Amino acid sequence: MVDFKFVDAKWDRAAEELTVRVKIWNWSSYTRQRTVNIWDFTLYPDRSGSGRKFMIRKVWQVDERELAGYHAFPSLKFEEEP
Question: Tens of pLDDT along the chain (82 residues)?
């Protein structure tokens, strides 16, 4: 994983679940493993201890596409070799 970004979040009051959408950039020396993915994580409150914690109920991949290049930050750039 090179980078990630929280894209969206939605609280389902009836189910007491939080769904978080995350965009994940992966870079590898293998071309087929250079991807950008969108995953949804569904979390629920863990009431077993003190403090506010969440546990993951389910995770699923919403989208995946190939990546030719990515700027993680201004001085770090990943590109396919010509």
Answer: 789 999 999 999 999 999 999 999 988 877 778 899 999 999 999 888 777 889 999 999 999 999 888 887 788 888 876 6
Structure tokens at 35: 């991807």
Identify which of 17, 13, 8, 10 has the alpha carbon closest to the alpha carbon of residue 39.
8
Q: Global pTM?
A: 0.77
CB-count exposure of residue 34 (10 Å: 0-12, 13-18, 19+)? buried
What is the number of residues in the chain? 82
For residue 44, the tally of other CB atoms under 10 A from its CB is: 15
Enter the DSSP assignment of 29: S
Strand partners, 23: 5, 38
Q: What angle do CA 33, 34, 37 make, to 5 degrees?
A: 95
